[in-house]
Write a structure and sequence with these properties.
9 helices; 237 residues; binds calcium ion; alpha/beta; four-stranded antiparallel sheet
């Protein structure tokens, strides 16, 4: 039986990093193609239809964010940013443009491979969405989000979220494994006219954590990407 290999396009101009990524991904069963500038990358995305794109933001001929913007007008191919730009604004911008994840250089191969698996699983099968659609639940560890009854339990015990707290947890559960930006959350939860002040999210999150986390200072279920947003744990964590 021929196993389908996922094809990953690396868009990166640093030959050392390309070499490193290429061998790491090939060893782990991926087909790898590369582009060292934005112009050739755009052509390759059209002609080769990769299953996932690893994208450096600092390219010689264009900004990687322009590639995300352009790619998102016609395809949902997962885009994982790998960049030396490490500010909160850089991450939030790329994610809001439609990147699926963001890794700051330097990063370890274990983390890279985990993020790739999550991003592939998400767009391919949307495992969480399927589970939610079929069973009306999302489960990770001892945490269970029941989308029909609108309750969250931990170890079988209802943690008694308020309606707004439930909506926040439910939204993160639908995108488990992915960083969801504050901006996206505010818009999804309170509409396009929502305030851009994420203080309300922080207040709700503090209360949510007291209810769902065994130790709120060491979150196991909802992680904070400081200055960017939140990520619900998935089976990859
Ligand atoms: Ca670069």
């Amino acid at each position: 039986m021929r196993v389908h290999k996922n094809k990953i396009l690396i868009i990166e101009d640093d030959t050392g990093i390309i070499r490193f990524l290429k061998s790491c991904l090939a060893e782990n069963g991926y087909d790898v193609i590369t582009a060292s500038n934005g112009q050739s990358a755009m052509g390759i995305i059209h002609s080769h239809c990769p299953d996932l794109i690893l994208l450096d933001l600092g390219l010689p001929d264009m900004d990687g964010n322009d590639i995300i913007r352009s790619v998102r007008t016609w395809t949902k191919v997962p885009v994982v940013v790998i960049s030396a730009r490490s500010t909160e604004d850089d991450k939030a911008q790329a994610l809001d443009l439609g990147a699926d994840d963001y890794l700051t250089k330097p990063f370890g191969t274990i983390e890279l491979l985990a993020r790739i698996r999550t991003a592939l699983r998400h767009t391919r099968t949307t495992a969480e969405d399927d589970q939610i659609a079929l069973q009306g639940v999302y489960t990770v560890g001892e945490l269970n989000i029941d989308y029909r009854k609108h309750i969250v339990t931990r170890g079988g015990v209802n943690v008694s979220l308020t309606p707004n707290e439930f909506r926040i947890v439910a939204l993160l559960g639908r995108h488990a494994g992915q960083v969801i930006t504050y901006k996206y959350m505010l818009r999804e939860l309170w509409g396009p006219g929502a305030s851009s002040d994420n203080k309300i999210l922080r207040v709700h999150m503090a209360s949510i954590r007291r209810k769902i986390e065994p130790d709120p200072d060491q979150p196991r279920y909802i992680f904070t990407e400081i200055g960017v947003g939140y990520r619900m744990a998935s089976d990859e964590d």
